[in-house]
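Training component of the fellowship. As part of building independent skills, the fellow (R.M.) carried out the full modelling exercise for a liganded target. The chosen ligand was iron/sulfur cluster. The inputs are recorded below so that the supervisory panel can assess the work.
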Amino acid sequence: MVSQTLNEIYQLLFERLGPQHWWPGDTQFEIIIGAILTQNTNWTNVEKAIANLKAADWLSPDKLYHLEITRLAELIRPAGYFNIKAKRLKSFLGWLFENYDGRLSNLESLDTFRLRDELLAIKGVGRETADSILLYAFDRPIFVVDAYTARVAVRHSLIEPGADYEQLRELFQLNLPEDVQLFNEYHALLVKVGKEFCRPKARCPGCPLEKLPHNLDAEYF
Ligand code: SF4
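Fellow's submitted model of the complex:
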């Protein structure tokens, strides 16, 4: 029943909204940097920060690892919270260089949940960031959860209000086929519907999921 509803939601979203082409980024490293920079800001600001790094030719693990943190903070200023995010990028790079010789390719052989645990142990890397890195940079079958996911799931009675991150991740991950491309597209579609329709004040008329039973009393936020 849950699987059926999740599939129906996906079909309706995909038919109406089409492919979302996530995650924007030319390289695996750029996707990781974007996942760390996008915390608490919108993507347009992240793009500006990444453009600064590219223009200065700093966008490689080795170069960023050796870049002075104050200069890094300056370059990523458009992404907001730039001092904190510079520290987070440095923490990620420190872990990569201290444990894996600075090579992303050395992470490929790690089991998905071992890699997840290691990412989560890095200061400033939370679940959503770690899972975005796993799914979008490493093509691992992990479902990424965010506020939009929670809102749609609760309003469509798929989970109780107040469900935590892991409960939401498992709801999707355990009830859908283990398919990286499906998880990639599904998360992106939930973000799209969350931004355009399933906002804190829901705009159900015209929403791709309008015909499915939903309950706006079951507020998540
Ligand atoms: S806006 Fe309404 S129909 Fe659309 S996802 Fe949210 S609760 Fe469902």
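The panel noted the following from the submitted structure. The two ends are 26 Å apart (CA to CA). Residues 82-100 form the longest helix (19 residues).
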